[in-house]
Amino acid sequence: MGVLGFTRSFNGFSIIRNKIIAYSFDYLHTRALSSFSTNFNGHDLKLPVLIVGAGPVGLVLAILLTKLVLFQVFRKLDGLAEEIQKSQPPVDSWRKFIYCTSLSGSILGSVDHFQPQDFEQIVSPVSVAHFSQYKLTRLLVKKLENLNFHILNCEGLGGSDAGRPVGEREILLGHEWVLVAHDLKDGEFILQIPFYPPQQNVEDFTHEICERIIFKLIGKELADINVIDIKPWVMHAEVAEKFVSCDERIILAGDAAHRFPPAGGFEIFLTLLSGLCAIDAHNLAWKLASVVRGTSPHSIIRTYETERRPVGVLSYTFSFSLVFPFYLKSCAFELPFLENFQIAISNTALSVQNFRAAMAVPAALGLDPTVANSGKVGSILPYGLQRGILDGLFILGRAQLSDFVLNENNPLGSSRLAKLRCIFEEGKSLQLQFPAEDLGFRYLQGAVVPSSVMDVPDAPTGRRWDYVPSADPGTRLPHMNVRASSNLSNEESYRLAHAAFKVAEEFKVSAKVCVMWPHGTAEVGSKAALSPWQNYVDVMEVKQKSTSLSWWKLCQMTDRGAILVRPDEHIAWQVKSTVLGDPVLEMRRVFSAILGVK
């Protein structure tokens, strides 16, 4: 596929040093490729990177590369996280999943997905946000408005354009409508309705028909309903065979590299998938920057594929099996893959559990999801009869949700309502937060220096597991509340810090030493010990509660340990005790392994 095959209506971005270069693809469409040379002058530069696709992934990658000093993703993009938190709807308007027969009908139950500890910022300085992608894109574009825009040649290509439909797939039978309230204040909603080709077509859902569906959902007719748009979406689950090709000069990220369906069609999993795409950009940006600076060879780009593609494959399995559990029966991983990425097993187990959780509520109400698997039985019948059978199934399904059936005086309804209460109270319904998948993934190969004894944790077998902070190589640096101080102890020799500064200069890498002191320590500072280097900071741990474990114990680190953190905040190397031998030689070994320098 040529470059124009990716263009559609997006903008393209390219980066040269501290400049970002953008142009509308309408420009490309109005000119033949052969005529491009007439549009460039002698002052045009040859760019190191061109980003095709100005969605969230492309924009994040553009911003990170423009800075060339890589910063947690949204939190460090010039206050973007704060803007999202400020602009999103109030948490109280979206923290619950409410199950009801209609918006004005009986409430069957609700699940609050936030607990008091979720707001204490223990595992992360930011919390889950509910923010539409088109609004996020606008914020990202604002970050680029003050930068210079030009059209230039390029020698590398990063594809992050949004995925395209490649075919149709039937959606699970059971006329269960899902209403996502994106912004109650602005009256912004998305209603997701399953439809069943070939018995139904997109053309069947006119504005008038959709208004009737909305009225049924609300429970009465309203005069101020405005159907803005009606679009079909198709279940996608694809991962590119390669994320990097052509001598590390063509790179795929985001939807260009992997496309996933929302979990069960409910948009719940999108938080994880959006994070997955942004992490692609975070992982790739510092490696591209190191190549542009001449710090690393092109081969470091291969570690992007080594680290991110397996995560994409695993998330692909996770999300796809949420909707189609039978897919797991045909999914197999080679043993080396499982050895290197044990998370595959946990995500597979999690996907099965989440699908069951998503289907638990309709199943308890008598809406059997397995009916979808027999949906083609009537395919040999005349088309009109097939439509009649489908309509009959819908009528039967809606009858299961009537007040006549679902009430405590009806033995059948009482039994079903009791099952629902158990599902909600025991946390067996579909969840909103996936902290272990958002924060707990780990790179066991790539731009990391594994520990001498690689401790690969056993795969969890349950559906919901708490995020367990770890300081092992390849994991994300766990969050710690700290405060800066110039009045801290000088007990350690700082030999390793000296070595890190010295080797960083040799490799032309910007390094910062953070000397972390336990809670309650207060003597003298590090200025004399680290002279003549200035790029350091003394910090003291701030404990959240008197009963909480210290960060060091939580991560199983010793007070003589050291951690080397990459620009994307993944731990590249760690040592839990004093380095034996020459620390400079050890630092050279570590930097060489991470940067791919021989």
Automatic annotation (TrEMBL):
Gene Ontology CC annotations of this record: mitochondrion
Keyword terms: FAD, Flavoprotein, Membrane, Transmembrane, Transmembrane helix
Membrane spanning residue stretches: 47-70, 311-328
UniProt cross-references to InterPro entries, sorted A to Z: FAD-bd, FAD/NAD-bd_sf, RIFMO-like
Residue span, FAD-binding domain: 188-312
GO molecular function, one term: FAD binding
GO biological process, one term: ubiquinone biosynthetic process
Pfam families tied to this protein: FAD_binding_3, Rng_hyd_C
Superkingdom of the source species: Eukaryota
SUPFAM superfamilies (UniProt xref): FAD/NAD(P)-binding domain (SSF51905)
Residues in the signal sequence: none
The protein's name: FAD/NAD(P)-binding oxidoreductase family protein
Organism: Actinidia rufa
